[in-house]
Amino acid sequence: MSRRARGWWAAGAVAACAAGMGSKQTMVTAPLTVLLWDWFFGRLPADRAAASRRWLYAGLAATWLLLGVLVAYERWPTSIGFNLEGWTPYTYLLTQTRVLAHYLRLAASGAPLVLDYDGWPMSRSLVEVAPYALAFALVLAATIAGTVRRLPAAFPAAFWFLALAPSSSVLPLATEIAAERRMYLPLASLVVAAVVAAYVAGRRVLPRLVANPGRCRQVGAIAAIALAGGLALTYGSMTSARNRDYWSDERIWGDAVEKRPTNPRARLNYGADLAKAGRMAEAEVHLREAVRLKETSAPAHANRGAVLCSLGRLEEGVKHLERVLVLDPTHTQVYSNLGEAYGALGRHAPAAKYFALAVQATPDTPFLLNRLAWLLATSLQDDVRDGPRAVEIGERAVRLTARQDAMSLNTLAAAYAEVRRFDAAVATAREALAAAERAGQDAFLPELAARLAMYQRGEPYRE
Fold first, then answer.
1. pLDDT in tens, the chain (463 residues)
2. Are residues 70 and 136 in the same domain?
3. What is the sign, positive or negative, of the torsion defined by CA atoms of 280, 281, 282, 286?
4. Are 82 and 203 found together in one domain?
5. 412, 391 in Cβ contact below 8 A?
6. Structural domain includes residue 221
7. Could you tell me the residue range of the domain that residue 385 belongs to?
8. Those residues with Cβ within 8 angstroms of residue 440's Cβ, 6 or more apart along the chain or in another chain
9. In CATH, what number is assigned to the domain containing residue 264?
10. Position 411 in a domain
11. Sequence-distant (≥ 6) Cβ neighbours of residue 430 within 8 angstroms
């Protein structure tokens, strides 16, 4: 290969490495992998190889700067780092010995695959993981020895350890202790090792069984095709079956719950999916378990609280919704649910408070503007009503909906009546009737007509 061609290949390698650094943090080991390959399989002595490819190595190493910048600007303070959720480098390393053993079992068997491993138990002492730790220590020691001696047979193991080092060593990924996708790339080294081992075994065993060289080659080819075909058929059918689990969000999380029932995140997501499907009673069972498994999970409390309220268990639901804000004050999505729950309980003051917070978080949501303005305009509780504020909020909702939404116009009419602007209330109520008729909201028409009559009599609406 000409020097110019080598230059283009090197530039392409550096560009590909930079692209990888920009997409996945575990690419941090890619430059080392190239160096490792050259160490094992380079034709030149180590010192001459380093000199001839120093610009390639420098270019690959320079991509670490890109990764460093991205990591600095894309922090994960609640998921990656030390002492998160009780994880330390030591406990994480101990736990990863079990995790890596699990990966290897899956690599051989292909099942049971699970989308999520939240709730993987923490290993706190070396005694708990002694068999796994000893086995990996021996393999690692053998790999290091083989690497020092530049034995090609050690390369797959060296690559495997290197590829898994960023996610499966001492830097705790507290919210995802195990993830099957981390084995996708390292699995390549295991496949290569298995294929080479099968080939070498065939070369040594078959001549002893079949004396004729030509016949031996035929038998070897047939055996290789049969083995490869059998594996392809087996794993292909397993892949097809697994793909069906991904046909719906509910199905994949249900599968995760079935295989790992103590997984709090799987319980939470499956419960949320059941709630979306309207299966509230079933959803509550799984969300109750999600809260039991991880009481500090704000999303679990938020979802369970909402489901309990939809089941009519308002007081119980409110406790979980309030708990959300204790655990995570930034969880602003819970405000509207608290407003609805307190409103249904007839406790209009806290309902108005939480609807106001919801509007503050998302000021351009007509539904929330309507809920707040309606309480401020129509509440039976004098200390809750605030007519001028209701008018201000109601007018904003009407502007956002271009005076085409019957609910927004109805709310604004009630607000006008509260401040005794009955002419405006009557005119706006008529607009609401017309908008409801255009939208085909026939069930809403009698309510709107009754309120219009009240405004025509000079009476505000109370609820």
1. 677 777 888 899 999 999 999 988 889 999 999 999 989 988 656 556 556 688 889 999 999 999 888 887 766 555 565 666 788 999 999 999 999 999 999 999 988 999 999 999 999 999 999 999 999 999 999 999 999 999 999 999 999 999 999 999 888 888 889 999 999 999 999 999 999 999 999 889 888 888 888 888 898 899 999 999 999 999 999 999 999 999 999 999 999 999 999 999 999 999 999 999 999 999 999 999 999 999 999 999 999 999 999 999 999 999 999 999 999 999 999 999 999 999 999 999 999 999 999 999 999 999 999 999 999 999 999 999 999 999 999 999 999 999 999 999 999 999 999 999 999 999 999 999 999 999 999 999 999 999 999 999 999 999 8
2. no
3. positive
4. yes
5. yes
6. no
7. 366-463
8. none
9. 1.25.40.10
10. yes
11. 452
351 lies in a domain? no
Q: Which amino acid is at 335?
A: Y
User: Domain of 463: which CATH number?
Assistant: 1.25.40
Q: Tell me, rounded to whole angstroms, the distance of Cα 318 from its chain centroid.
A: 27
Last residue of a domain, one of 75, 100, 120: 75
Residues 60 and 175 in one domain: no
User: Distance from CA of residue 386 to its chain's centroid?
Assistant: 42
| Element housing 270 (H / E) | helix 264-276
- pTM comes to 0.85
The number of domains in the chain is 4
> Is residue 147 domain-resident?
yes
**Half-sphere exposure for 370 (CA within 13 Å, toward CB):** 16
111 in the same domain as 71: no
Q: What does the alpha-carbon distance between residue 150 and residue 152 come to, in Å, rounded to a whole number?
A: 6
Cβ neighbors of 22 (< 8 A, separation 6 or more) are 66, 67, 70
Place of tokens 């894309």: 74
Are 195 and 297 found together in one domain? Answer: no
The length of the chain is: 463
Q: How many C-alpha atoms does 89 have within 13 Å on its Cβ side?
A: 5
* Residue 39, helix vs strand vs coil: helix
How far is Cα 235 from Cα 233, in angstroms, rounded to an integer?
A: 6
Task: Answer yes or no: do 64 and 46 share one domain.
Answer: yes
Q: Do 195 and 184 share a structural domain? A: yes
| Domain-terminating residue out of 160, 184, 209 | 209
In terms of domains, do 370 and 430 share one? Answer: yes
Nearest-CA neighbor of 99 among 173, 35, 153? 173
How far is C-alpha 278 from the geometric centre of its chain's CA atoms? 23
Q: Report the chain's C-alpha Rg in angstroms.
A: 33
